Amino acid sequence: MTLALELQGIVKSFPGVIALNGVSLAVERGSIHALIGENGAGKSTLIKIITGVHRANEGTIKVDDRIVHFVNPRAASREGIGVVHQERNLIPRFSIAENIVLDRIAAKTFAPINYREINRLGEQWLRRLELDLDVRRPVSSLTAAQAQMVEIARALSLQSKVLVLDEPTASLTSHEAEALFRVLRQLRDQGVAILLVSHKLEEIESLCDCVTVLRDGRNATSSGPLAGYDRAALVRAMVGRDFALEQAARIGFTSTASNSVPALELDGVSTSLGHRDISLSVARGEIVGLYGLVGAGRTELAKSIIGLHPIVSGELRVHGRAVRIGDVNSAVHRYSLGYVSEDRKAEGVILMHSVLANAGITIWARLRGALRLLSDSRILSNVDPLLRRLDVKAASRHAAVRNLSGGNQQKVSIAKWLAAGVEILIIDEPSVGIDIRTKAYLHQLIMNLADQGTAILLISSDLPEMVALADRILLMKDFRLVSEIANDKDYTKISADIMSRIQAVAFD
Amino acid sequence: MAVGRSSRSQPNEEASTALGLLLLIVIAFAVFSWTATGFASPYNLYTLTRTAGLNVLLGLAMMVVIATGGLDLSVGATGVASAMFAGYLMQDFRFQMVIAIVAALCFGGALGFCNGFVVVFARVHSFIVTLASMSIIFGAMIVLTKAESVRDLPASFLALGKIRWFGYLSPMLIVSVAIGALIAIMLRWTDLGREILASGASSRAATLSGVRVGSRIITVHALSGMLAAAAGVMLSIRNGAMVPSMAGNLGQEWLLPAFLAPVLGGTLLSGGRAWVLTTVLAALLVTELTSGMLLMAIGEFWVQFALGSVLLLAVLLEKGRSTLMGTGEGI
């Protein structure tokens, strides 16, 4: 076995912080290598150095035993390093083929574009990934999973010898993830070195050959075969101590007064976005899960409930009373309804504003005094206990949320709803891109909220999370609810049940 | 990734900008006192503080809209139209001065409200909306006034223009600074101001947190119209008359000072951050530079050239700074 990619003694500092302090990494040709660690351990920085986005202050990078210097991402891709970032980097209105061979379209400045050649090349790479798609389709018409495959095709088309994938399954369902893994295994067998960043230990165990663990900007383990570690050992390496992986199972919700009025109830609701005949109910203290493939319309339903999009027919009831919610403002302040967005950076928090401003935004109107005056200290005295309880780590309460780790940002985006004391909370993909420790913490928090009487509608593509938290699971497909499953927390049984039902519906 | 977590707090970033501007004001003062004859004379200082009063208001009028990520090209047209309105109330309808001025502020506020209303409900960028309303308001004003000035004004109104404190200070600057203080309090210490900044920083996140972003955008446009009206009234007091061309054709002469003050003062053009203190200081600096260069007789066009260059430089510096640092504290 030879090394496709080797990093030694990488040091990278930013003003005020050392992100990487002597990190080494060795990725063998024809292997799938996991790069794991908690948020803030330095994974993203290391990826950026490998792909030429950042330059290391110290240390060497070798590709095929040759020392290389990447001055920019283009230099890295010339050396055969292909990357698929967490976010999609495709041009939506361009076709699949155009996106795949984009670099080469631009290569010749004045030559006319040869579409037949472009489509031929595109098709060649799609075939290699066994994707049955028309290369002339615009990327905007693809599902998240398909778009991801197109990005992999693009990375491969650059003759990549090393393929870097940053949390590739974050927005995929387990079904779609399996398809991706099959492709990755094929690529490995063809000799490609694959570096995979993931928070999901289950998928790492089933997929990867080797592993490198980072902690606090250093190697917690050097690169080595995964066979030497069990899950507990990996967690210990990441966290630095023993950590209870098994979370406290939620004590099943028992509707003590089964005839009591649900907190949130949808009765034959259709929305302007295309939902048809949605009926569901969430009781006080209940966690109802909403599962489905990406694009099934779950987030859109949540946004319609909180008043962002109109409900065109059917009835929405809050505590038994039929209501029409005109905007998010009345959802929050009149009906005590909150929504934790899946898109944390764009919708969940205001990145450039402080922790204080983010956590207090829902209670400004309530706290203001005469002449609408409102001091920082008044807000602080209301949100500080919550921020403490959530253990939000920030330089100060005035630090910009942009400078917080993903997990702490998510805590802030939840803190504002705790501050508002909402009775109904819709939580959309709470743990995307969040490390295991924060994730376990968030799960505990969600369960505690329910125990205290909050009605929770949980949207998640993370099946283990769904099974761990939800009391009932509703399946959504093509903007309709198709099935309901009582969750008895037996993961194997429930996940098989969900998968078979989703596929059954697919073949209708 | 905890990249570049600095220990600086937000007020310090504003303070350092303020300190830099103060330093520039002092340096420019020293240079002009030495090179431009009569720069430090009491009379020149008096006219300088008088113009500064106007420029501060213009800067604030633009700043409040920029805070939400928009802009208002109609400040000049709105200001002049509102002043003309006050003039007619006093000349043709013999309104009392105070009532006429309040009516002008309301008139300006109403024009701004219309701007904001169209921006929100037609979902068009304020650039286009205010470009159109600039032409509409100015055109209608010229038609209605037949481009004639209003000169038959009450003695009390004309007397305002002659007040001069300590021989070198115009009360107009004091009035503008007081208005600035009120806006600073509004932005920093009321829920209204916090919501305005939240709407500017991320309208999606603010909306999903229950902020009525649309009504905040209308609020800042109405406020901008009011401040423009105040500037129009102030200029009329100085001129002793309401002149339809006092801000140039379409009110365009006000645009450069209106943008210079907030941009030099560190207000982000994309919205979400606005500092009053530095905007006021930047308006002072711009007034000082203009006055000094005019006294040095380097020609009106070169002054325009220089101010335009300063605007571009300030934008580029801010861009460079945020790219290099990539950090900064929250607001």
Outline the structure in words.
The complex is a heterodimer of chains A (508) and B (331). Chain A is α/β, with parallel strands linked by helices. Chain A folds into 2 domains: 3-239, 3-Layer(aba) Sandwich (Rossmann fold); 264-506, Rossmann fold. Chain A is 35% helix and 24% strand. Chain A has a 6-stranded mixed β-sheet, with helices on both faces. A 6-stranded mixed β-sheet of chain A has the order 16-17-18-13-19-20, with helices on both faces. Chain A has a 4-stranded antiparallel β-sheet with strand order 2-1-4-5, with helices on one face. In chain A, strand 17 (424-428), helix 17 (436-451) and strand 18 form a beta-alpha-beta unit. In chain A, helix 15 (376-389) crosses helix 16 (406-420). The longest helix of chain A is centred in the middle third of the chain and has 16 residues, at 174-189. Chain B has 331 residues and is an all-alpha fold. Chain B has a single domain (38-318), classed as ABC transporter involved in vitamin B12 uptake, BtuC (Orthogonal Bundle), CATH 1.10.3470. Chain B is built from 13 helices and no strands. Chain B has helices at 10-35, 42-66, 75-91, 97-122, 126-145, 155-160, 171-189, 191-201, 203-208, 213-239, 255-264, 276-295, 300-325. The two termini of chain B are 20 Å apart. The model of chain B is unreliable at 1-10 and 326-330 (pLDDT under 50). Chains A and B meet through helix 11, helix 12, helix 13 and helix 14 of A and helix 8 and helix 9 of B.
Keywords:
heterodimer; A: 508 residues; alpha/beta; Rossmann fold; 6-stranded mixed sheet; 19 helices; 20 strands; 35% helix; globular; B: 331 residues; mainly alpha; ABC transporter involved in vitamin B12 uptake, BtuC; disordered N terminus; cell inner membrane (chain B); ABC_transp_permease (chain B)
